[in-house]
Amino acid sequence: MSESARTAEPAGCAVAREGQKDVIVFLNVRRTPLEQRAAFFAAHRLGHEVVLIADKAPADLPERLVREVHQLDTFDAAALDATMADIAARNTVAGVVTWSDPGVEAVSRLAARHGLRAPSPAAATVARDKFRMRESLKDRPDLIPRYARVRTWDEAAKAAAEIGYPLILKPVTGNGSKGIYTVHGEDGLRPAFEELHRYVQPSVDRLFTGHDGEILVEEFLTGTEHSVEGWVQGGEVYFAGVTDKTTTPDFHLETGHVFPSALPAEALESVHALTRAVVAAFGIDDCAFHLECMVGPDGRARLVECAARGGGDFITSHLTGLATGVPFCENTLRVATGRAPLPAEGPARYAGLIRVMADRAGILEGIDGLGDALRVAGVEHIAVEREPGQKVAVPPADFVSSAVLAVIATGDSYDAVRASLAAAQQAITIRIGDER
């Protein structure tokens, strides 16, 4: 691929190779190169090249796998529709997928226009709106927390009084654990509300377009945190498995995962039953899904949210495939192109991830011990997400940059994976200096 394909291009500009057919369109890709490659290689294994539409094309794309790159504002519906029409006029398009929340509704619209497989626009709208998620299940209060959508301080104070403390404030639309506040009492409500209200604006993050100022106030759920990974095709739910999650107690940033879950059989059945009910209520079909839930002390699962796309944070790009032997991204593309997902014969191994986080704001001066961490038995990858010299910050100032790196490990048991991750984390030191 020419250098021009890797740099900024005007809307609709493409770099193409002639005489080739049958492509899969990706609407943006995941944030890290390690996750991106998993998606590109999945397309390759299925015999497809990729046409990438992206707000910003990543550097060093695999040129033998990526046929065209269209760099444009993907929030511009007219430009996006015109670009997709141009791609379809010159290629046989087998499917269209996105790998993160901002593209879910756009992919549904594009698929409907071009006769491709994806969730319906109505289902995609629900899966991008946490208030609508709960409204679609309001006849099943046993599956959801108590909740209210608010836009003003008076509405927030009224909702908090009705729901009770502790409670959660979060954006109505969002992703990546951005903007989640735990409020333990009345004195903490107003500061949290004002900080979050300033954050949920399109001028801060275009993810909030159409939902500016919208906040969800909801019941604080106790128990353990999990996600469910799988696909829906023709109304049938296919489970890849359940992931156990570790999060920070204050802002619920995800710091660790282990797949498959250690939940007992009864709790797993509750999680599966919740998933089937959510998929049916939302109308999700012909896509991957990533459902997050809490399992209470009584073993009952309740919904946190459900996305109509595969999970991020290396769960579906790496953990599920390392554990089961069946690449999740490949099955996602199989479903998007009308093929049944490949089954796994049950988990062959366990896989997990731990994040090394900055504990204060400043300048990342260095990362020590990476070589020692890579030599820990079971460690498969270390993905460095912040480079020395970059600024790091902690919530609520920033919800992303505190994640410095992630360690991925496998093992023959749940405990072996956790031990490998702990040993790798112990070997790594991150050095943060003051801003000058």
TrEMBL record:
Cross-referenced InterPro entries: ATP-dep_AA_Ligase, ATP-grasp, BL00235/CARNS1_N, LAL_C2
ATP-grasp domain mapped to chain residues: 134-337
Stored Gene3D superfamilies: 3.40.50.20, ATP-grasp fold, B domain
Calcium is among the record's keywords: no
Keywords: ATP-binding, Ligase, Nucleotide-binding
Coiled coil: none
Cited SUPFAM superfamilies: Glutathione synthetase ATP-binding domain-like
Top-level taxon of origin: Bacteria
PANTHER family assigned: ATP-GRASP ENZYME FSQD, FUMIPYRROLE BIOSYNTHESIS PROTEIN C
Protein's name in the database: Biotin carboxylase
Taxonomic placement: Bacteria, Bacillati, Actinomycetota, Actinomycetes, Kitasatosporales
